[in-house]
Design a protein that fits this description.
single chain; alpha/beta; Rossmann fold; 8 helices; 7 strands; binds beta-D-glucopyranose
Length: about 270
């Protein structure tokens, strides 16, 4: 039987891609707080990943930093091997690594397009495929979870909200939405639960320049009925929920964690 606390991740093992900073780092810590051991994947920032792993260990959990580019098939297989060799078979995979390469549409280069699609969408495909393979190989562990495995994508409000000057990013997230739902439909019968979070404006490096430019924060807040920019932990906690048996009947869903950004706030008193 799984733990009597359905939120507990005790005895479970997680891999978080792009876990060294931002929402990925918060997800690592919230998973650890709920009881999971965590492999922190990073691409370039080894020091930050080692620091995140140390913070997880300080919570009494096991952790390892694993290097790898989610857009590379070989790197993805290697990062799963490294994580499983160090921590044991994976129960939870968070496909979080993502980036922006913004440009006016007519000036967007093929490289801007390819770079974003490769990490955000192809990376999601490669990580999800490896996760499903590993979950099957591991088999059920009813003493830790009702599910065979939990796969959670970090998408964006821009899987739904069009985004001028960011069409590569919005297209990657729109692609992730139907990728996630289609995988969920295919593998739910085996006990693999696939879901996503769609964060809005969260205080991370990805939008630091926008938030810190003159008038940037005020403009952003106009888009957020809740009246504040989100913290990475706001999203990390929802990821930990989706990884737990507390969400066992949630399949193929995207939970928007956006302070109401996707509610078309421009229509308040308008239209
Ligand atoms: C983007 C951020 C942006 C937020 C809300 C996220 O997906 O990465 O740059 O602030 O969406 O627009």
């Amino acid at each position: 039987m799984a733990s009597s606390d359905p939120h507990s991740l005790s005895g479970q093992t997680a891999l978080v891609t792009g876990g060294s900073s931002g929402i990925g780092r918060a997800a690592c810590l919230e998973l650890a707080r709920a009881g999971a051991d965590v492999a922190v994947n990073y691409h370039g920032s080894q020091d930050a990943a080692e620091e995140a792993a140390a913070a997880i260990r300080a919570l009494g959990r096991r952790a390892i930093a694993v290097q790898g580019d989610v857009g590379s098939e070989g790197d993805v297989a290697a990062m799963f091997d490294e994580a499983e060799n160090a921590l044991g078979p994976l129960d939870i995979v968070v496909s979080n690594a993502g980036l922006q390469r913004d440009a006016k549409f007519a000036e967007m280069t093929l490289d801007d397009w390819d770079t974003v699609i490769r990490t955000n969408l192809t990376g999601g495909f490669l990580v999800a495929r490896e996760a499903v393979r590993r979950f099957r190989k591991k088999g059920r562990r009813p003493e830790t979870s009702r599910a065979l495995g939990k796969l959670i994508f970090d998408s964006s409000v821009h899987q739904r909200i069009p985004w001028a000057f960011h069409v590569n990013y919005a297209a990657s997230k729109g692609g992730l939405k139907i990728l996630m739902e289609s995988i969920a439909q295919e593998v739910a019968v085996e006990g693999i639960r696939v879901n996503a979070v769609a964060p809005g404006a969260i205080a991370t490096d990805i939008n630091k320049l926008e938030r810190e430019k003159a008038g940037g924060l005020e403009a952003m807040l106009q888009l957020i009925p809740h009246g504040r920019v989100g913290d990475p932990e706001d999203v990390g906690r929802v990821i930990a929920f989706l990884a737990s048996d507390a969400s066992d009947y949630i399949v193929g869903q995207t939970l928007f964690v956006d302070g109401g950004m996707a509610l078309y706030p421009g229509f308040r008193g308008n239209g």
